[in-house]
Amino acid sequence: xxxxxxxxxxxxxxxxxxxxxxxxxxxxxxxxxxxxxxxxxxxxxxxxxxxxxxxxxxxxxxxxxxxxxxxxxxxxxxxxxxxxxxxxxxxxxxxxxxxxxxxxxxxxxxxxxxxxxxxxxxxxxxxxxxxxxxxxxxxxxxxxxxxxxxxxxxxxxxxxxxxxxxxxxxxxxxxxxxxxxxxxxxxxxxxxxxxxxxxxxxxxxxxxxxxxxxxxxxxxxxxxxxxxxxxxxxxxxxxxxxxxxxxxxxxxxxxxxxxxxxxxxxxxxxxxxxxxxxxxxxxxxxxxxxxxxxxxxxxxxxxxxxxxxxxxxxxxxxxxxxxxxxxxxxxxxxxxxxxxxxxxxxxxxxxxxxxxxxxxxxxxxxxxxxxxxxxxxxxxxxxxxxxxxxxxxxxxxxxxxxxxxxxxxxxxxxxxxxxxxxxxxxxxxxxxxxxxxxxxxxxxxxxxxxxxxxxxxxxxxxxxxxxxxxxxxxxxxxxxxxxxxxxxxxxxxxxxxxxxxxxxxxxxxxxxxxxxxxxxx
Length: 521
Fold this sequence. Notes:
Elements: E1 3-10, H1 14-23, E2 29-33, H2 41-44, E3 49-50, H3 60-70, H4 77-96, E4 122-123, H5 129-143, E5 147-151, E6 153-159, E7 179-184, E8 189-200, H6 221-228, E9 233-234, E10 239-246, H7 260-264, E11 267-269, H8 289-303, E12 308-311, H9 317-323, H10 325-333, E13 343-352, E14 355-357, E15 369-371, E16 376-377, H11 390-408, H12 432-449, H13 456-478, H14 484-505
Parallel strand pairs: 1-2, 1-8, 2-5, 8-15, 14-16
Antiparallel strand pairs: 3-4, 6-7, 7-8, 9-14, 10-13, 11-12, 12-13
Helix pairs in contact: 1-5, 1-11, 3-4, 4-11, 6-14, 12-13, 12-14, 13-14
C-alpha cells in the first residue's frame, strides 16, 4: 500500500517548509523529516537574511557585486540577479508567515553588516534569526490542512526507472523521479511514497566533518540519493568553514559565534593578544569567511595552538548583551563573560556552496525532481557564499520551484507499477560499532585531508581510505535491513567522495578550495 501525494517534500528547513506552504493551497503535500519538524540547519542560523531594504544607501547592483566578489566570480550572474532582485519579496513572504525581524524605534529594519557586504543589509531577530524563522514556519505548516507531516521518516532512495527494471546510467536520457522509498523509524518498515513531483530540501553536509556548526543530521542525504540516481551534482569542493565557532572541546556540533559580531566590531587576536588579520587582508576581521578561516588556520599552525580569540570587550557591555543575548548566555554557561573575557574560537565546517545542480526553476537533471536550499547548487554562491545569502536563496528558489511545478504537475500521473521495497534475506546489523566507527573514520579522513587547506597527496590519501569504507558499507547495506544510522553512513561516504573527487579535479586555488599544489593557479 503506497502513499500518494501531489508533492513529496524531503526536508523541513526554510526551503522545504516555504515550498510546502506555497503549493499547499492547491495540492496535497507530504513533508517528511528524519527527526522532528523543528530540527534543521535553519534553526541554528544566527546572523540573518540579506536583502536590499534601505534604498537611501543601498541598491541591487551593490548586493549583486558583493555576491560576485565573494563567489570569486564563479557565481552564475543570472542566479545572483534572480536572488538579489527577488529578495525583498522573500522578506515580505517571511514577514507574512509571522517572522519578526528587529526594527528601530522609527519602524525601519535594524540592519546588520557582515563580512563581504558593502552596506548594512542584514535583517535579523537578535542573534537567533534562524530559530525565529523555523518556529514561525513550523506553526504555519502544522496549521495547514493540506500538509501532512511525517516525523522520524528517513528517505532511503528516490524511485526512478531503475526500480522498474531498467538499467540507468549517467548517459540515460529522461531519468524521472516518481517518489521515494522512506523508512518509518517507528515501525522499521520502508514505505513507498509516490508523488507527481518530489522536492529535495535536505540541507547540508557538515556532519561529514568532525568539527562542524551543523546539526548532526546534516549528512548530505538528498545529494547522495540524487547522485546514486545518476543526477548531476556539482561544486562540491566548495565547503565553507565558518572562521569563528566557539572552541569548547567535546561539543559537537560546535556553537556558532555569528559573523555579525565581527560586523559589530569584534577583533580577532592570537593567544598573546596580538591582532593578525592585517597580515592577510586590508578588510581585517571583516574579510570574507574563506580568507578569515585560512588566516586563523595559518596562525594556529604557526603558533601551535588549538584556537584564537575573538575580542569584543572594548564595546559597550549593555549593547553587547542586547545584540547577542544567546551568545552571551552560552559563553557565560562556560565561565566566559564576553563583555570582559575574550572568546576562544576556531574554524568549523559550516556551509556547502555546491550540491544538486538545478536550473532557474529549481529543477534537477532528473525529471520531476526539484532541489532547493543548501542541498542545491543554483549558481548563486560560486566559489564562496556571501554571508546571509543562503536563507533568502532558499525562499526565492522555493517560490520559483512552486510556480514552475504548479503548472508542470498538471501533466504528471502517478506510476502504478512501482514495486514495494524488497528486503528479503536481510537482517538488522548485528554490531552497531561497525557503523559508528566507520562514521568516525569518515569524519577523521575529511578533517585531516579535505579541510581548509588541501594538497594532491592528502586528497589521494582520502580517496584510498574512503574506497575501503565504501566497499565495506555497501556490502553491509546489501545484507541489512535499512536503519537511519546505516543509511546516513552510506550517504556520508558518497558525499565525502564527491567533495574529495571534485576537489581533485579543480587544479587551482579558487574561492573556498585552497590547495598548496596550485596556490596561485
